[in-house]
Amino acid sequence: MPYETIQVEIHGRVGLIRLNRPKALNALNSLLLKELAVALETFDADETIGALVITGNDTAFAAGADIKEMAGASAVEMLESDFIPTFDRIRGIKKPVIAAVSGWALGGGSELALSCDMIVASETARFGQPEINIGVIPGAGGTQRLARAVGKALAMEMVLNNRALSAAEALAHGLVNRVAPVERYLEEALTLAAEVAGRAPIAIRLGKEAVNLAFETSLSEGLAAERRAFNFLFATEDQKEGMAAFVEKRDPYWRGR
Ligand code: CAA
């Protein structure tokens, strides 16, 4: 399917989506978000793909929601718009999604990265929630996901006073998984995604679900859900294969069944 605002590539078992509005620093307009959701869902439904990577370019992952597009909107138009709900579609992707972030990850761009399961950043990445400068607050999960990722103190400073984080700070505060030189961050993200994509698909899916549940539920409910998923995996061929391969000292062959 041809896209206007993104580019899609396949690297082995990894689906790569490049945000592609470079003149607007990849600002997220409605078309881009819609195309992104469609591309993610298409890869999610494709059995030959095991993990996804979203990236921008070296200068900008995404500089936020498209301010020019939303500036004149009324509250009711915002309420009825698909724009913010599209982030729920992104959250609904079952396969692991890795953000490869270089340069600006601001506002909705930072929120998009935070909606992914892991983040590989370049040394030039800059994460921030500058919405306060334009009279609003983060609207695509920033207040919730940042508070969970970096804690209340720093999240407050970022949301209330536009405190941005360098890549090194983001790593120190647990916002990103790893930082690489700008020449290598995408390669690192693709390698990480390829590693994950090569693992047992059903266990990967349930592992993602279980970790995400940790941010939504009580410890005892989360532990119970984890136990159910763990027990369920003993009904899969991949569990039999994985444990047999260990005992027989050979590599497992995953069937995703
Ligand atoms: N929306 C629309 N256009 C944007 C944009 C955005 N978020 N960010 C950058 N652009 C456009 C600029 O308007 C400019 O376009 P023109 O050449 O047509 O004027 C182009 O991208 C290049 O930007 P700058 O000239 O501003 O580049 P710079 O290097 O001087 O500054 C920047 C870079 C600091 C990132 C600056 O562009 C900036 O502050 N951008 C806005 C960041 C922002 O406020 N993001 C939050 C948006 S609201 C949001 O995201 C809500 C939500 O939670 C969902």
Structural commentary:
There is one protein chain. 46% of the residues lie in helices and 16% in strands. Strand 2, helix 1 and strand 3 (51-55) form a beta-alpha-beta unit. The longest helix has 15 residues, at 30-44. The protein is of the alpha/beta class and 257 residues long. Strands 1-2-3-5-7-10 form a six-stranded mixed sheet, with helices on both faces. Strands 4-6-8-9 form a four-stranded mixed sheet. The structure holds acetoacetyl-coenzyme A.
Q: Spans with pLDDT under 50 lasting ≥5 residues?
A: none
* Global outline: globular
Q: Helix count?
A: 12
Query: What is the arithmetic mean of pLDDT?
Result: 97
H/E element order = EEHEEHHHEEHEEHHEHEHHHH
How is this fold's topology laid out?
Layout: E1 6-11, E2 14-19, H1 30-44, E3 51-55, E4 60-62, H2 67-70, H3 75-80, H4 85-91, E5 97-101, E6 104-106, H5 108-115, E7 118-122, E8 126-128, H6 142-150, H7 152-161, E9 165-166, H8 167-172, E10 178-180, H9 185-197, H10 201-213, H11 219-233, H12 237-247
Helix pairs in contact: 1-4, 6-7, 10-11
The chain binds acetoacetyl-coenzyme A (CAA).
Residues 24-25, 27, 63-68, 104, 106-108, 111, 130-131, 134, 138-140, 142 line the site of acetoacetyl-coenzyme A.
